[in-house]
């Protein structure tokens, strides 16, 4: 089992940058595919990015491709999401999640563990 804690959210102006982090407990972090999701008020939770266990493969939602970068540090049990050129529509609660699989997934049902989220607000 793994516990996830997000941090680094905040308020930023449109066009700015922010990095959110997710720290995982346990010694088996490197055995999980990790993902970032977000949820805006009144909307369903949506996929943002995912990264393979080694960090060698990444996959992004079209809406963030070229602006966001997912990375991980298995020695620190941490996954990051660097967000650049932020837009007001990027506003939401950002969640990290862990999947006990070898494949990358954009479907939230494939993820087994979730953090409580961190709020990101982008002002226009």
Task: Provide an overview of this structure.
There is one protein chain. With 124 residues, the protein is an all-beta fold. It is 0% helix and 48% strand. It has no helices and 11 strands. The protein has strands spanning 4-7, 10-13, 18-24, 33-39, 46-51, 58-60, 68-73, 78-83, 92-99, 113-114, 118-123. A hairpin with a 4-residue loop joins strand 7 and strand 8.
Keyphrases for this structure?
124 residues; mainly beta; 7-stranded mixed beta sheet; 4-stranded antiparallel beta sheet; 0% helix; globular
Ends apart, CA distance between termini: 40 Å
Kindly provide the radius of gyration, computed on alpha-carbon positions and rounded to a whole number of angstroms. Answer: 13 Å
Number of strands: 11
Percent helix range: under 10%
**Biggest β-sheet strands, sense, barrel:** 7 strands, mixed
- Estimate the strand proportion: over 45%
Mean pLDDT level: 96
- What is the H/E string? EEEEEEEEEEE
The geometry reads as globular
Question: Could you say which structural class the secondary elements and strand pairing correspond to?
Answer: mainly beta
Q: Report low-confidence residues grouped into runs of 5 or more.
A: none
What is the count of DSSP helices, taking H or I runs of 4+ residues? 0
């Amino acid at each position: 089992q793994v516990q996830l804690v997000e941090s680094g959210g905040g308020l930023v102006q449109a066009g700015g940058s922010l990095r959110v982090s997710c720290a995982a407990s346990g010694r088996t972090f490197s055995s999980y595919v990790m993902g970032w999701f977000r949820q805006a008020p009144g909307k369903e939770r949506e996929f943002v990015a995912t990264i393979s266990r080694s960090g060698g493969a990444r996959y992004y939602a079209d809406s963030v491709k070229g602006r966001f970068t997912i990375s991980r540090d298995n020695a620190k049990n941490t996954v990051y999401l660097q967000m650049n050129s932020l837009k007001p529509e990027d506003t939401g609660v950002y969640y990290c999640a862990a999947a006990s699989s070898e494949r990358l997934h954009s479907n939230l049902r494939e993820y087994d563990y979730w953090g409580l989220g961190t709020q990101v607000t982008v002002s226009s």
